[in-house]
Amino acid sequence: MRKIFAVISITLFFMLCSTSFSAATDLESMITEMEVKYGKCVPVQWGEELDGIVTRFETDSKEIALTLDACGSKRGSGCDEELIRFLRQENISATLFINARWIDANPDFFLDLANDPLFEIGNHGLLHKPCSVNGRSAYGIEGTADIPELVGEIELNGVKIEDLTGIKPYFFRSGTGYYDEVAVQIARDLGYIIAGYSVLGDAGATFSREKVKAALLSSRPGDIILCHMNHPEGDTAEGIIDAVPLLIEKGFTFVRLGDKVVK
Ligand SMILES: [Zn+2]
């Protein structure tokens, strides 16, 4: 009798609990699993093009993928509405890598983008940290300190996006795009494809209009272009608007990463 009561109590407890409880439980078990598997590994590599990072895709036609990062933070939570308007007007697909802090700063715009089939949402991390298992930095930005922080950096934004859109992203790009090789394996074990890039489109939205245009015009079939959609004050939109008609004239079409790179 006591056993039946216990089973009913546990069932009711789980039924009454919010999804955040199960998400927290999932996170804890993921951390434990990764610590058991990788806890003794000491990384020796650090970079943007390690094995396991997808920097280009296979294609036999003139297809390229435009990816746009939205990094968040006080200075990085802008919305390049001119750029998004242009992409919609020209029917240009893109994959948008969105950080949790950017979502919090732009909740309505985020949902507007997520509901548009032209775009695909990727995970750009919780706090925009380079992915490390021992706190290695890139561009002065401290990386995740250990496996628990790394798993949280990836998974908590993945769950946030899933809660808001009903779809869990399966592309991940870290803040700064840097990883050690253990972090790459962990992100892959968590179910993500890691999206690097082959064309540096705007260097963190610091390129001039001409430089953005030239970078995009250097694209070859199968390239992944990295630009930003969170700095409307920069020249990214202008450079893309200059380059896209010329790329279309050359016969290029734009794809979302998910159209070409599958798990
Ligand atoms: Zn970023």
Please indicate the percent range of residues in DSSP E strands (runs of 2 or more).
5-15%
Instruction: Provide mean pLDDT, rounded.
Output: 93
CATH superfamily: Glycoside hydrolase/deacetylase
Radius of gyration, Cα only, in angstroms? 20 Å
Shape designation:
globular
Instruction: Report the total helices.
Output: 10
Major β-sheet annotation:
6 strands, parallel
CATH class: Alpha Beta
Order of helices and strands: HHEEHEHHEHEHEEHEHEH
Low-confidence stretches: 9-18
Measure the end-to-end span: 47 Å
What hetero molecules are in the model?
zinc ion
Roughly how much helix do the residues carry, as a percent range? 40-55%
Q: How many structural domains are formed by the residues?
A: 1
Number of strands: 9
Assign the structural class, choosing from mainly alpha, mainly beta, alpha/beta, alpha+beta, or little secondary structure. alpha/beta
What is the second-level CATH architecture?
Alpha-Beta Barrel
By CATH, the topology is TIM Barrel
The protein's oligomeric status is: single chain
